[in-house]
């Protein structure tokens, strides 16, 4: 007997940003696996069970969810944002690759969600309007020298850079180092957007220049967007500045 | 008098992937600007007006929407996917920067949506589970040599690469050239995902190896995801292969 495994994203936390198909998956499932604060975003019925775990136990959590689905249950794995961006979908795939054959037979449905950089970009203007990249700043998952190389190549390529997992108590210096490194490759006035809890009541959006960007205002829940040399700021009297990256670069065919 | 301007995304076209806040904006607005096929995704009332335009007239469309909002109307600019990713939000910001002062006073709300690469990734597994970039392959908007440079730097950086606007009748050769170029920098077996109309009834997801990737199966509505050297394929008897990029790289702190 094989049950069903949904892997969903709640979006950044505003319930109005969660898709109807993700809500339908929540309605259909009986058992929910995820980091506690993400499970807290769901309105579960009394007959639905929470299996909360710490946010650094992704692979164990994926295995537990797969085992239960392989036994016939309807299971939902819950990420914040989009499950495919630095989140649980890759952990579930990895668990399937390395797990028992029965896990490959599980009916798996991954449903996309609004990832943090999209929500932050929308609040700031359109900083991701041109080519961009997304980098996790966690050196728990890859060596720091790889992260440095990627930051430099991204700046050279002219990508806007979205940084996920910028800082935590265990990783206090990485974001400051990233700013320092990028100052050698990008203009001093390059806009840096700090987007925390976009779309939630406790939202904080701040824009600083790269030359003065202050890593200490970021926390675990912050997504950082660093402009390219093309990124512009539009001031609006009485309103927040707009930050956007033009679609067009000189030399295109029109 | 100043009205209101919403800039929304419909997601890739499955109505179940459109957020409640975007639907609420549609409900609140009276006038809708966008490319016709995107406007067709909305269920409008008889008192709501469509202003459809061709998909290459973004800046004129943004200006027309801003002018109407500045006159007091409740206006909605509609993109497919997410309005901030190679779509209308940047065109609206650009029009504000270069337009009359009254446009800066317009109450502007940009709402995020599910962008194509997230929907395609979810159908394929978790190819965007590690660092990645998104590049528009349109050389209408930037010179082709910039696109080539970015592709090579992205491959060198180890980014998974999502390609938007891969091909059109007026741009038939760019995707094939991109594959050719990337073959010099990535393993022959690198998975290439062609995702068309993800989540819609006419969805087509195909996975090929980079060495044999066939640009002619893509069209305007296709989003391409090219793996990194780390991207893996998990076969599942009787089910589609899963394509995923592991969260972890050898050398991380755990």
Automatic annotation (TrEMBL), chains A, B:
<dbReference type="InterPro" id="IPR000878">
    <property type="entry name" value="4pyrrol_Mease"/>
</dbReference>
<dbReference type="GO" id="GO:0009236">
    <property type="term" value="P:cobalamin biosynthetic process"/>
</dbReference>
<feature type="domain" description="Tetrapyrrole methylase">
    <location>
        <begin position="5"/>
        <end position="213"/>
    </location>
</feature>
<dbReference type="InterPro" id="IPR014777">
    <property type="entry name" value="4pyrrole_Mease_sub1"/>
</dbReference>
<keyword id="KW-0808">Transferase</keyword>
<dbReference type="InterPro" id="IPR035996">
    <property type="entry name" value="4pyrrol_Methylase_sf"/>
</dbReference>
<dbReference type="InterPro" id="IPR051810">
    <property type="entry name" value="Precorrin_MeTrfase"/>
</dbReference>
<keyword id="KW-0614">Plasmid</keyword>
<dbReference type="Pfam" id="PF00590">
    <property type="entry name" value="TP_methylase"/>
</dbReference>
<keyword id="KW-0489">Methyltransferase</keyword>
<protein>
    <submittedName>
        <fullName>Precorrin-3b c(17)-methyltransferase (Precorrin-3 methyltransferase) (Precorrin-3 methylase)</fullName>
        <ecNumber>2.1.1.131</ecNumber>
    </submittedName>
</protein>
<keyword id="KW-0169">Cobalamin biosynthesis</keyword>
<dbReference type="InterPro" id="IPR006363">
    <property type="entry name" value="Cbl_synth_CobJ/CibH_dom"/>
</dbReference>
<dbReference type="GO" id="GO:0032259">
    <property type="term" value="P:methylation"/>
</dbReference>
<dbReference type="GO" id="GO:0030789">
    <property type="term" value="F:precorrin-3B C17-methyltransferase activity"/>
</dbReference>
<comment type="pathway">
    <text>Cofactor biosynthesis; adenosylcobalamin biosynthesis.</text>
</comment>
<dbReference type="InterPro" id="IPR014776">
    <property type="entry name" value="4pyrrole_Mease_sub2"/>
</dbReference>
<keyword id="KW-0949">S-adenosyl-L-methionine</keyword>
């Amino acid at each position: 007997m094989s049950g069903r495994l949904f892997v969903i994203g709640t979006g950044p936390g505003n319930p109005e940003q969660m898709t109807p198909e993700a809500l339908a998956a929540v309605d259909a499932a009986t058992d929910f696996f995820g980091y506690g604060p993400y499970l807290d975003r769901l309105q579960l019925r009394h007959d639905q069970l929470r299996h909360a775990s710490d946010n650094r136990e992704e692979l164990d959590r994926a295995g537990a969810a797969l085992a239960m689905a392989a036994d016939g249950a309807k299971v939902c794995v819950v990420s914040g944002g989009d499950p495919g961006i630095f989140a649980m979908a890759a952990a579930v795939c990895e668990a399937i690759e390395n797990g028992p054959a029965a896990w490959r037979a599980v009916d798996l449905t991954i449903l996309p969600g609004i990832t943090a950089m999209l929500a932050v970009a929308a609040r700031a203007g359109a900083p991701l309007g041109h080519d961009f990249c997304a980098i996790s700043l966690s050196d728990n998952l890859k060596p720091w020298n790889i992260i440095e190389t990627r930051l430099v190549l991204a700046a050279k390529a002219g990508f806007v850079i979205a940084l996920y997992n910028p800082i935590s108590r265990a990783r206090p210096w990485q974001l400051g180092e990233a700013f320092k490194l990028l100052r050698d490759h990008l203009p001093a006035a390059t806009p840096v957007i700090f987007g925390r809890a976009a779309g939630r009541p406790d939202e904080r959006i701040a824009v600083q220049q790269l030359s003065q960007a202050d890593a200490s205002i970021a926390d675990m829940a912050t997504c950082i967007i660093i402009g390219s040399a093309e990124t512009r700021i539009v001031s609006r009297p009485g309103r927040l500045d707009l930050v956007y990256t033009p679609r067009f670069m000189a030399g295109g065919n029109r």
